[in-house]
């Protein structure tokens, strides 16, 4: 049986309706606009999405569109290993909460895990700023 890995769920409140947050985040083409530490660019190759990252090209695949706000996605490493990134948006009054769970990757140090979680926090704050500007403008 696999062991339980360290995990941290990062959450951010966004003053923007959940439907708009979901639509923006579920589009892989928007990744470089907010996940700047991870995605330098994104392109569609056949039916697949490929993200240019600091560690080279990696695939990304979101779960099917749904009415529950689930934005789980898999990052496909160059080795072919798929890493699940659980993510969800839920309503919070006229705005929303966006949650992302970071798991400690096997063989990663505790320091690397903390750095990964901090990177996700920075990216979610960037997403918050971007979406709140867009929602204020509309």
Would you write up a description of this structure?
The structure is a single chain. The chain has 3 helices and 8 strands, in the order E-H-H-E-E-E-E-E-E-E-H. It has a 5-stranded antiparallel beta sheet, with no helix packed on it. Strands 1-8-7 form a 3-stranded antiparallel beta sheet, covered by helices on one side. The chain has one domain: START domain (Alpha-D-Glucose-1,6-Bisphosphate, Chain A, domain 4), CATH 3.30.530. The mean pLDDT is 93. The longest helix is centred in the last third of the chain and has 28 residues, at 110-137. The chain is α+β, with helices and mostly antiparallel strands and 138 residues long. The chain has helices at residues 18-25, 31-34, 110-137; strands at 7-14, 41-45, 48-53, 56-62, 73-76, 82-85, 87-92, 95-103.
């Amino acid at each position: 049986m696999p062991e339980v890995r360290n995990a941290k769920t990062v959450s951010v409140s966004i003053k923007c309706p959940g439907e708009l947050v979901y639509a923006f985040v579920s589009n892989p083409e928007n990744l470089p606009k907010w996940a700047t530490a991870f995605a330098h660019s994104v392109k569609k190759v056949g039916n697949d999405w490929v993200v240019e990252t600091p560690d080279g090209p990696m695939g990304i695949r979101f779960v099917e569109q749904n009415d529950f706000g689930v934005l789980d996605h898999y990052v496909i490493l160059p080795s072919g290993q798929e890493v699940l990134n659980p993510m969800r948006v839920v309503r919070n009054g006229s705005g929303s909460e966006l949650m992302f769970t970071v798991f400690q990757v096997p063989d990663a140090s505790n320091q690397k895990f903390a750095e990964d979680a901090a990177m996700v926090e920075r990216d979610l704050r960037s997403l918050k700023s971007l979406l709140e500007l867009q929602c204020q403008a509309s």
